[in-house]
């Protein structure tokens, strides 16, 4: 790297390459699921805060360097490298890397040098796409609506984007909002989106690049009539998805019937709770989704469930703190008791399967 501003070129790439190497040598390790739990989840948690920073941060003196050794440089950096690799295709991406390394051997580079090499190989302006990810803070949430589904037009969906913030999503009356949070941010991204069948990630229906203009004007996608859809199979894209209307029903059905791969179960679960915490949907929606996982057997999905339900328990305990008695001994409130019953319902099948 030419200067500390481009720190992520070292650290983000190194983080991505270590997982790529393990997957190549030991595919049975399912290392990309670990990547989702360790890197993507942590990066999104940090980057959903107003206090986050862009991947590329102008560093004016060495005294500022320590401030950017964090989850954004390492984990978000590696996540967007994984995303652009998937968007361009591994073959083109590898050729672009070879050109980048050959052109700058024995020298230092900038982020633009990488984008230029990839653009030359792919014939696409990679710099314009990726600068929306490296020079802006945050990441998008895509809101998906069904426009129509007819014999003549097929299924038409509308996608809009908005910056996702953990603290956004309530109107002035304290009620939940179903529309993007009005936090005054105008960030917008080029978002590589893969659309698949709701119950089968291998059945890809279309790949599109959602433009920044989808911030203010819906981006329409035409699909085969009668399709039941889901976005972001395999959780390669660095964004959250909010489905409106009837689009969520087939995903819940597939989830309840155990037809989603474990990475996709992890994705829809994490999105549901993140949207609920941000006030974009009701918490009951996230709990309804969680209830579909009462026979869940994957460790990473259970880790996500444990974390999300633990956060909910902490919130309930905090809100009900006034119910503590004068002696300081805590009592189980009806809300916490109901949550305990719900957790037992989820865990009991696995508990019985594993044995006491």
Automatic annotation (TrEMBL):
Domain ERAP1-like C-terminal: from-to ranges = 231-355
Instruction: Please provide, alphabetically and separated by semicolons, the GO molecular function terms listed in this UniProt record.
Output: metalloaminopeptidase activity; peptide binding; zinc ion binding
Would you indicate the residue range of the signal peptide? none
Q: What biological process terms from GO does the record include?
A: peptide catabolic process; proteolysis
Q: Which Gene3D superfamilies match?
A: 1.10.3480.20, 2.60.40.1910, Neutral Protease Domain 2
Q: Which InterPro entries match?
A: ERAP1-like_C_dom, Peptidase_M1_aminopeptidases, Peptidase_M1_dom, Peptidase_M4/M1_CTD_sf
Peptidase M1 membrane alanine aminopeptidase domain residues: 1-133
Query: Which organism is this entry from?
Result: Hydatigena taeniaeformis (Feline tapeworm)
Q: Name one GO cellular component term.
A: membrane
- According to UniProt, the name of this protein is Peptidase_M1 domain-containing protein
Q: Which SUPFAM superfamilies does the entry link to?
A: Metalloproteases ('zincins'), catalytic domain (SSF55486)
Which Pfam families does the record match to this protein? ERAP1_C, Peptidase_M1
Q: Which domain of life is it from?
A: Eukaryota
In the record, the note on similarity to other proteins reads: Belongs to the peptidase M1 family.
């Amino acid at each position: 790297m030419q200067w500390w501003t481009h720190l992520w070129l070292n650290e983000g790439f190194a983080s991505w390459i270590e997982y790529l190497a393990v997957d190549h040598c030991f595919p049975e390790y399912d290392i990309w699921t670990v990547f989702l739990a360790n890197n993507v989840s942590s990066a999104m948690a940090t980057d959903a805060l107003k206090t986050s920073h862009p991947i590329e941060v102008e560093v004016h003196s060495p005294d500022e360097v320590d401030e950017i050794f964090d989850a954004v440089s390492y984990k978000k950096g590696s996540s967007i490298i994984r995303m652009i690799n998937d968007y361009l295709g591994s073959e083109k991406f590898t050729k672009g890397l070879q050109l980048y390394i050959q052109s700058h051997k024995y020298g230092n580079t900038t982020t633009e040098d990488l984008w230029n090499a990839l653009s030359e190989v792919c014939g696409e302006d990679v710099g314009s796409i990726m600068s929306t990810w490296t020079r802006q803070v945050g990441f998008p949430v895509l809101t998906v609506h069904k426009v129509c589904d007819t014999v003549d037009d097929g299924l038409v969906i509308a996608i809009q984007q908005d910056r996702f913030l953990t603290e956004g999503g309530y109107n002035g009356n304290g009620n939940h909002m179903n529309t993007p949070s009005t936090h005054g941010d105008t960030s917008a991204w080029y978002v590589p989106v893969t659309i698949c069948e709701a119950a089968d990630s291998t059945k890809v229906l279309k790949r599109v690049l959602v433009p920044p203009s989808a911030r203010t004007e819906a981006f329409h996608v035409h699909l085969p009539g009668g399709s039941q859809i889901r976005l972001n199979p395999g959780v390669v894209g660095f964004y959250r998805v909010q489905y409106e209307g009837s689009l969520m029903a087939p995903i819940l059905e597939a989830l309840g019937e155990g037809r989603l791969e474990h990475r996709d179960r992890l994705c829809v679960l994490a999105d549901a709770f993140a949207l609920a915490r941000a006030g974009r949907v009701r918490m009951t929606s996230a709990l309804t989704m969680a209830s579909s996982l009462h026979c869940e057997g994957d460790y990473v999905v259970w880790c996500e469930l444990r974390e999300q339900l633990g956060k909910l328990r902490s919130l309930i305990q905090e809100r009900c703190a006034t119910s503590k008695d004068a002696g300081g001994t805590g009592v189980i409130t009806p809300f916490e008791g109901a949550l305990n019953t719900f957790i037992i319902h989820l865990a009991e099948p696995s508990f019985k399967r594993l044995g006491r």
